[in-house]
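Sequence and structure are kept together here, with a separate record for every protein. An example record follows, reproduced without changes.
>
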Amino acid sequence: METSTILVESDIPTTASKGRGPSVKRIGVIGNYLPRQCGIATFTTDLCDALVNEYEDLTVLALPVNDRQEGYAYPARVRFEMAQDDVTSYRRAADFLNLNSVDLVCLQHEYGIFGGEAGSHILTLLRELRMPVVATLHTVLKDPDEHQRSVLEEVGQLCDRLVVMSHRGRQFLEEIYNVPAAKIDMIHHGIPDVPFVDPAFYKDNFGVEGQNVILTFGLLSPNKGVEQIIKAMPRIVERYPNTTFICLGATHPHLVRHEGERYREGLEHLARELGVAERVQFVNQFVELEHLLEYIGAADIYITPYLNQAQITSGTLAYAAGAGKAVISTPYWYAEELLADGRGVLVPFKDSDAIASTTLELLENSQQRNAMRKRAYVYGRAMTWSTTARRYMRAFIRAREERSRQPRAAYVGGGLSQRAHDLPMLKVDHLRRLTDDTGIMQHAIFTVPNYTEGY
C-alpha cells in the first residue's frame, strides 16, 4: 500500500543543488505577503526568508494577491501582484512565471485569498504553468461543499506535490479528495528557533514583572473565542490577584472594514462588566516578529480558545508550543495533534470554567507546568524554520525529478480562443428570479411580479 511522504533528516538536502535530481535555483512563491496583515502573508514571508537563508544560491520571487485596489508597500522580493477578483491578472501571473525561467512554483493555498467561487481563479493560473508546482494546503475541509471539493481536487491534479501540516490533513486528502498518498508531504508549520527561557526574563519589557501572564495572540476576530478567557479571569484573579491576561493583535482588517472595532469594544466592555478590566490588556497592534517573540517569552500560559473544530493548522499555536509555553487549547484538529502526549492541555469548546480550572491547576503546580513546557519545546526543535525550509527543498527536488520523467509541453503564448476556459462562469441567477413557468416577466412592483404588463 502506498504511503504519504514523511521526510527524515537524512533525506533533507543541505544545498539547493544537491539531491538525486535536477537542481532548484529559482522559485516563484504564490501567496499573500507582508505587510498585508493575515496569517498566510506571515507564513509566506517566513517561508521565503527561511529558504533564502538556508540556500545562498537560491532566488525566490514572491507573487502576492491583493484584496484592495491600492495594494501594499511590498519589499523587492515581490515581483508580480495579482488582483484578487481579476481573473486576467492570474493569467498574466502565469505568463510572468513561464517567461522568467522559474524552476518551480510553491503555492500557498487557502480558499479565501483567491477570487472566484471557492477561490477558483487560482485554477486559471495553475492550468497555464509549465514548471512543477508544490502546493501548501492551509485548509483541508472534512465536509466541503460542491465548489470547495471541485477546486481542491483540481488543485491536487494540477500540482506535482501537496504539502500538509498535520496528519489529519493528509488523511482527509486521501479519503475525501482522492489524492494518491505518494503525492503528499507532511511538513510541520515552521517556527522561529528561540531559546528555552524563564518567562520572568521578558516580563519587565511589558510592565508585568512579578505577575502571572496569560497570553493569546493573532488577528482578532469572533471565531478566536477570546471572550472565554475573559469570562475565566474572575476565578483566576480571585485565587491569583497578580495575574494579567494580554490579548495581543490587531483586529482582522476585513472585520474592521465591515464593522469597525465593534468586537474588540465588546470584549473591553465584558472585562469591565466582570470587574477584571485592570487585569486584561488589549494590544491592538500587528507586531514585528522580534517584538512578538518577546511577548511569547513573557507568557506563563498560552491559550487558544478557538471556537471551530475544523482548523487544520495554526501558526500562533505552533509558535507558542515551539517556544516552550504551557498551552491550554480547545480541541480543534491541529491542537489535538500538536498538544498530544502531554505537550499541552485540551479543554472543551466555549467552556470558560474549564479554562479557569486548568489555568489555576497549572499556576498551582509549577512542576507540571514546566514538564509540559519542556515536552513542547523538545518537540518543536523539529519544526524550526531552517528544518522546515530543508524539508520543502526536498519536496521541490522530488517534484522536479517526477516532472522530468513526465514533462509537460513547453510554454507558448495563446490567444483568447485558446483560453476560453479563463472566462468567468456564466451566472443566470437573475434570470431564474425573473422567470416563472410561462416565461420571463417584463415588470415588477418592487419584488412583486406585475403580470398585467405581460412577459
Summary: The mean pLDDT is 90.
